[in-house]
Amino acid sequence: MLYLDHAATTTVRPEVREAMAPFFDETFGNPSGLHQVSQRAKNAMEEARERAAELLGAARPLEIVFTAGGTEADNLALVGVALAGGARRGVVTSAIEHEAVLDTAHFLERLGCPLEVVGVDGEGLVDPAEVANRVTAVTGVVSVMAANNETGTVQPLRKIAEAVAAREGAAVLHTDAVQAFISEEITVASTGADLISLASHKLGGPKGVGLLYVRDGIELEPVLHGGGQELGRRSGTHNVAGIVGMVAAMDAAVADRHAFRNRVGEARDRFEAALRRAIPDLVVNAPVDARLVQHSHIRLPGVSSETLLIRLDQAGICAAAGSACQSGAVEISHVLAAMGMTETAAGECVRFTFGWVNAAQDGDEAAQRVLEVVAGMR
Amino acid sequence: MKALVAMSGGVDSSVAAALMVEAGHEVIGVTLKQWEGPGGEQPTAGCCTVGDAEDARRAAAQLGISYYVLDYVDEFRRAVVDRFGEAYMSGLTPNPCVECNRTVRFHALLERTAELGCDVLVTGHHARIRRDGAGYHLLVAADGSKDQSYVLHMLGQHELEHVRLPVGEMTKAEVRAHAARLGLRTAAKPDSQDLCFVGAGDYRDFLRKHFPEAARPGSIVDESGEELGRHEGTVDFTVGQRRGLGVAVGEPRYVVDIQPAVATVVVGRRDALLSDGCELGDVRFVAGRPPVDHAVEVKVRYRSQPAPARLEPNGDTWLVRFEEAQPAVAPGQAGVLYRGDEVLGGGTILARL
User: Fold this and answer.
1) Do residue A376 and residue B31 have CB atoms under 8 angstroms apart?
2) Buried b (16+ CB within 10 A) or exposed e, A159-194
3) Is 0.90 surpassed by the pTM of this model?
């Protein structure tokens, strides 16, 4: 089997598994408690929080709110800021955000929060000036992703942060860095963001855990109400094993990041070069100088992506189209539509993504095997 | 042989897949995602609901075959659902299952079968395919009470060469017994009853929601145009209906015509329902050419008995002359030509004669 869908999720790193093991066993406690069993779990979790804060360059550990994943972190960022204190603050976001942001923004609009959705250019890039133009006195939160999960387009976040900061008003900047963190430097300083969402499973950690960095002083309306964990910002018994595993995965990802960019980037480049040689009309759907090194989002003119993905799967190769519904059926991507692609062209796009397990030469084998399948179709 | 099996999540298509696996073929199962509401909501009844797709997926897993959900929402909406509403509003009695088979299942999906590298498309329909020196023949199902040949009449030689209907050789009881023997979770699942895309309720609720003009109050008139009563929407009536008309006249009256565009229902005596024949358009013959002998039997509805008739060429269309006048012939429905067990072809009823 050849797995080329690491952006959907990737394998758990051995050191993550090892770090998590005690929390299924002797360190099983609920961190919210008085006794020693609780305290051991609490200590491990707070140690993880400190490390996560450090890796993100946060000023204080309590700026880290653990959640049950990237989607929840995105929901908390938008809902939390827009509705804090009973307000109905405005939201400015881009048309290529993950549904966790876009659908939440539309939900907030239904509750009375003014919504502005900024378009993108043909390569999926958001224009910082365009974002800033939409920011007004009523804007509470601006949300632009660090890199797109489908095409891999990396957004000029620093410039967006500066443009937004130059506007009057109290708008804060959120970024969904779920897809970017494994290969891009994502810190409070590098992004200029006030809120940052991360998900564990994209980094080689377990599924079902994520975090939201929240700059000190930002008031958040909670999404989940209950026992008041995470300073009341996120109720629910802590997923201690998951939290420890996530931070171990962040640690490993940051330590490997430089090597990852070289190794996995070369695998991707060798893959695309071989594909281009065989398929001259192949199109890469992202700016070559601003995309994630692990992503290859391409269009094969004349080949239906749904058919290609099934034929690849039959040949033991796992790839993806941009977005799939719960049943697995391929749907027309809102990202490609926002880039101005026709429905037909969008239906010819496939995403191959490499991961931390890949070596540079994996790109050659991947290309050879993908080309064998494509050859049977064109 | 490599087979693509269209799995609806019901017992027939699950067993069709099982039979292909047992015969030693390489099998891929697919479910067509055909419908979602404007907000992405899924249908809750019929043959393509999310729960049904999960039943199909689980059956495929039990059989150890690959399984995929294919997105045919756009094609289905354009070719089947929109056309259903438009045809209804123009006064026809459309059969969306026939249209779906013609444009989606045995056209788009059949093309996809080849693109996916498969040799044949397998469905769970109850009908039989035979081959002899003259080519392929389409026959009624082994289980006459489950026969679906009416909705398959558009299959020609090319289609029949690439289609397999393995459960058409079995009775429904045999199909269920086979499913039970294999431990398939679909073994005891009830047959789907209504159109797959109508959701909760029936096609009337669907029309009310999506074509509100069909639910406008209007007149019930006799054939001279005199108003006999009022109704709450043409959607509540079907041609041939006798009960629930709410008009009191001496002898029994039947719905003889429905005109949704002007919200009018026309009623008449039983003999006004009778037709001596009908005109068929878009006629396709299974053999690829009309039969030499023009004596046929015709089914004008899914559940009607075949009626003896003669075929007459009429330019681009065909005229069908019944031996005995037939009741409730509804333009828009399929007129399907049989000779004994064999389907000769069929088309769309354009007009009563």
Assistant:
1) no
2) bbbebbeebeeebbbbbbbbbbbbbbebbbebbbbb
3) no
